[in-house]
Input
Amino acid sequence: MSTLSTDRLLAESAEAGRECGPCTVCCTVLAETELKKPMRCACEHVRSSGCGIYATRPRACSDFHCLWLRGALPAEEQFRPDQLGVLFDGYRPKGADKLRLVALEAWAGAFDAPTARDMIDGIAGDHELELSRRDGSWQTRGPACTASAVTEST
Ligand code: SF4
Ligand code: SF4
Output
């Protein structure tokens, strides 16, 4: 059964009481166009204390809220990306009717840890979910598809 709270899936703000704290996973796993930062490469501005250019960071950074921060995943900090090892995101691509759900691995092997695997299995039981591994490979999971690994082309 999915652990997703569907009413918070497309929320544009953080859920009350949730904060990024020491997490900076999105600063590595996501691409950032303005900074020309590719996926899975740490941003040149990320510091152990957080963003080194916090006040002037790109709009895409300040607007980003992963599914944990939005409140679509359970509140416990063990599910925050820096602890779980997985960043879950959900968005509606331009012109698409369907929501796209993705899980991005923060470090190699994180998908295989028991808590992360349970989360992925639960969500993929009800929804199509694209998994992005640290080695650059993608896999689609979900009720309507058999697992199929493809190599990232971009
Ligand atoms: S991955 Fe989520 S919790 Fe972590 S810094 Fe980014 S938005 Fe915050
Ligand atoms: S500019 Fe700051 S918030 Fe944006 S990716 Fe880099 S470290 Fe993260």
